[in-house]
């Protein structure tokens, strides 16, 4: 019989020690999906915190506070809502990150424990498609910043009519493609190049954030009207007594913002030196910087009311209004911020997911190129206008995946995995013909309660009952707990 592992690199165990590759199916792994070795575990808590700072400081994060304030919240209610959402999403981040650090495996490989080696392709690709959408949106934002810089420096010479079909001007599309091409350099050079970029960009981005805050404070003579404006939900205000009606869907949307990373965080924590490093790095790097950046956005925007006579939430528009050399500095910071977020949050995950479809043919680099291609095809300049509804919509999908994974890893497996079997079609995780139907069934069951609200939310149906509309308000929570419970029940009957 031919040795199926001939020419395949030696596999490694969770401790970083080599494991025998005999019996492992070469169709289920490549060099990028093998457990990380001890030498590859170079990320301390500062590196992981820097990773998060690099991802947090981006234009969509800046705009989150504007959405909440426009919904009626005061600045402090908006900041606290964002802080609460990220404290909540930190829990599955750390819990699923534990598996990455303990076993050195990426997200699609961990999925095989609960979905089977074939079934895991479903949630991995679902997570990947969401990331492709975000990749496109972030690339469009970065390209827009480049366009503003060049258009300002040329006195508006780049402005032009929108092209047919695309709906944007030729110059805007060329700037978008230029920023898109910049991503390809880091995709080609792999995860370690991304870590390098995040490590050096994090302090620069924090410095730029505080510099912007200082500029706004002194230019406006203090923070202006917005920080003193009462909540619309206070007594005597237009939306008196309606805070909780707005708070819960807003909280769900804010959780949805990082619910993507809560799934594929093992892609990064597999490089952590220890569990302490992955925990402390995430604790320091996620909730507080998110809330801080939301405050900076609120404070700077309040100052623009005094400086320009109107609230300017879009940092690209703000940089354009600032003019002079400051526009180049500000927009350079925006480009760096967008690049660091996009590479870490929206390239690594789908690259692993697409690689998992055919590991012997698609490595991490090729998966990244596929991500970049799909990101263009999704017309991100159109998608960006529907960002808030999309946050809640995909949280209804990602919550159930997280529920299944957590129930499997902690309640069913007690954090004990046989790493070698994750790379076998006939191993203990193979289910029936490579699919664990308990996982797939639980995923469907977790999605179903949110389906009526989703269909109404995207306009496919005219509406839904108050009951299902209320459930959809808590889409991520409902999906997580329903799918997790369903998985435990189905596992008793289907995996005997």
UniProtKB/TrEMBL annotation:
The chain crosses the membrane at residues 45-65, 77-96, 129-150, 162-187, 199-223, 243-263, 283-308, 323-345, 366-384, 390-412, 433-451, 471-490. Pfam families: Transp_cyt_pur. It comes from the Bacteria. Keywords: Membrane, Transmembrane, Transmembrane helix. The keyword Membrane applies. It is found in: Membrane. Signal peptide: none annotated. It is a multi-pass membrane protein. Gene3D superfamilies: Hydantoin permease. The keyword Ribonucleoprotein does not apply. InterPro entries: NCS1, Pur-cyt_permease, Uracil/uridine/allantoin_perm. Belongs to the purine-cytosine permease (2.A.39) family. This is NCS1 family nucleobase:cation symporter-1. It comes from Limimaricola variabilis.
């Amino acid at each position: 019989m031919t040795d199926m592992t001939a020419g395949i690199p030696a596999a490694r165990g969770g401790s970083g020690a080599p494991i025998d590759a005999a019996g492992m199916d070469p169709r289920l792994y490549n060099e990028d999906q093998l457990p990380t070795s001890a030498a590859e575990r170079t990320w301390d808590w500062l590196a992981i915190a820097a990773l998060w700072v690099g991802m947090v400081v981006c234009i969509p994060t800046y705009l989150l506070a504007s959405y909440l304030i426009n919904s009626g919240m005061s600045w402090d209610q908006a900041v606290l809502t964002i802080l609460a959402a990220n404290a909540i999403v930190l829990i599955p981040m750390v819990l699923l990150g534990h598996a990455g650090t303990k076993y050195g495996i990426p997200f699609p490989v961990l999925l095989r424990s609960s979905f089977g080696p074939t079934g895991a392709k479903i949630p991995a690709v679902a997570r990947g498609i969401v990331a492709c959408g975000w990749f496109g949106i972030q690339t469009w934002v970065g390209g827009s910043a480049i366009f503003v810089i060049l258009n300002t420096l040329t006195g508006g010479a780049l402005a032009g009519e929108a092209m047919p079909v695309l709906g944007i001007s030729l110059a805007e599309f060329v700037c978008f493609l230029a920023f898109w091409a910049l991503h390809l350099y880091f995709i080609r050079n792999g995860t370690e190049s991304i870590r390098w970029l995040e490590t050096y960009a994090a302090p620069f981005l924090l410095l730029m954030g505080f510099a912007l805050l200082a500029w706004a404070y002194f230019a406006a003579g203090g923070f202006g009207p917005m920080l003193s404006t009462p909540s619309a939900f206070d007594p005597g205000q237009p939306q008196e007594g309606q805070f909780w009606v707005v708070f819960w869907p807003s909280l769900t949307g804010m959780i949805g913002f990082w619910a993507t990373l809560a799934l594929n965080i093992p892609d990064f924590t597999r490089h952590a030196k220890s569990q302490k490093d992955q925990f402390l790095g995430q604790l320091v790097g996620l909730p507080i910087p998110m809330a801080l950046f939301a405050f900076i956005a609120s404070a700077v925007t309040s100052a623009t009311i005094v400086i320009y006579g109107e609230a300017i939430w879009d940092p690209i528009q703000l940089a354009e209004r600032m003019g002079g050399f400051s526009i180049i500095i500000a927009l350079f910071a925006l480009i760096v911020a967008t690049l660091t977020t996009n590479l870490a949050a929206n390239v690594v995950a789908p690259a692993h997911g697409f690689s998992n479809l055919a590991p012997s043919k698609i490595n991490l680099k090729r998966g990244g190129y596929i991500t970049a291609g799909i990101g263009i095809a999704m017309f991100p300049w159109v998608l960006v206008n529907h960002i808030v509804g999309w946050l809640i919509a995909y949280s209804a999908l990602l919550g159930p995946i997280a529920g299944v994974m957590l129930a499997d890893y902690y309640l069913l497996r007690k954090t004990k995995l046989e790493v070698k079997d994750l790379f076998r079609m006939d191993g203990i995780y193979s289910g029936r013909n490579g699919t664990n139907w308990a996982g797939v069934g639980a995923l469907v069951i977790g999605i179903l309660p949110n389906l009526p609200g989703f269909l109404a939310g995207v306009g496919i149906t005219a509406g839904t009952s108050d009951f299902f509309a209320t459930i959809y308000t808590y889409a991520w929570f409902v999906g997580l707990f329903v799918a997790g419970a369903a998985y435990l029940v189905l596992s008793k009957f289907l995996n005997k």
